[in-house]
Every structure is written in structure tokens, then in C-alpha cells.
Design a protein that fits this description.
Distance between the termini: 21 Å
Strand content: 35-45%
Structural class: alpha+beta
Radius of gyration: 15 Å
CATH topology: Tetrahydropterin Synthase, Chain A
CATH superfamily: 6-pyruvoyl tetrahydropterin synthase/QueD
Shape: elongated
Number of helices: 2
Number of domains: 1
Order of helices and strands: EEHEHEE
Largest sheet: 5 strands, mixed
Helix content: 10-25%
Strand order of the largest sheet: 3-1-2-4-5
Oligomer: single chain
Number of strands: 5
CATH class: Alpha Beta
CATH architecture: 2-Layer Sandwich
């Protein structure tokens, strides 16, 4: 049987959006408490798991160290850190270590998010 699992992580970061109009509120430096869903899928193994949630946490730790309490614009590859840029950035890093990764969903707020999926 196949199953889909998700582990959520939160991190706090500041950013600004340099490609919006100067009078747009997001052109100014501001911050968010981001939430990231790491979504994996696959067969259920002999342990009764798709993947141990601890393995997802271990894979997330370097990303948390990179993103949490940082200015996203200062991170290589995130010069224009919209959620549409941030979600694939996270996906590309995590897919190297989580073979069962199928999607990343990044929430900028409780009402706004972007999801990227494996094709």
C-alpha cells in the first residue's frame, strides 16, 4: 500500500521583494514566520512507515540552520525570495537526501502558500 506523509517545520526570516514596485509594501524589509510542509510518499515498509519522521527532521536541520532568523535575500539563490522562489529552493535541497520527497509547501502566512511537486 502507498501512503503520503507530511512533517511541518517553522522558521522565522526577514526579506524584501526587490522586483515589486517601490511603493509596494513588500518592497520594504519585513519578516514572516514561515511554515514548510515536507511531503513524502511511497510504499509502507516492514516498520509500517513510508519514512521515519526523524529522518525528515534530520534532513531539515541544515535548511533550518540556513534559513532561520536570516535575511533570505542574502542567501545565494534567494535574491528575490518570493514563496514561488523559496519553495523550489527548499525542494531542490531536500530531494538530494529524501528520495521519497514528492512536494514542498511553503506558507508565508496562515492564508498564503506555494507548493511545488515532483513532476
Amino acid at each position: 500500500m502507498k501512503a503520503t506523509i507530511c512533517k511541518q517545520f517553522d522558521f522565522d526570516a526577514a526579506h524584501w521583494l526587490p522586483k515589486v514596485a517601490q511603493d509596494h509594501k513588500c518592497h520594504r524589509m519585513h519578516g514572516h514566520t514561515y511554515r514548510c510542509d515536507v511531503i513524502c510518499a511511497g510504499g509502507v515498509d516492514g516498520r509500517g512507515m513510508v519514512l521515519d519522521y526523524a529522518e525528515i527532521s534530520d534532513a531539515w536541520k541544515p535548511l533550518n540552520d540556513l534559513l532561520d532568523h536570516r535575511v533570505l535575500n542574502e542567501i545565494e539563490g534567494l535574491g528575490n525570495p518570493t514563496t514561488e522562489v523559496l519553495a523550489p529552493f527548499i525542494f531542490n535541497i531536500l530531494e538530494r537526501v529524501l528520495v521519497s520527497l514528492v512536494a514542498i509547501r511553503v506558507y508565508e502566512s496562515s492564508t498564503t502558500w506555494c507548493e511545488v511537486r515532483k513532476p
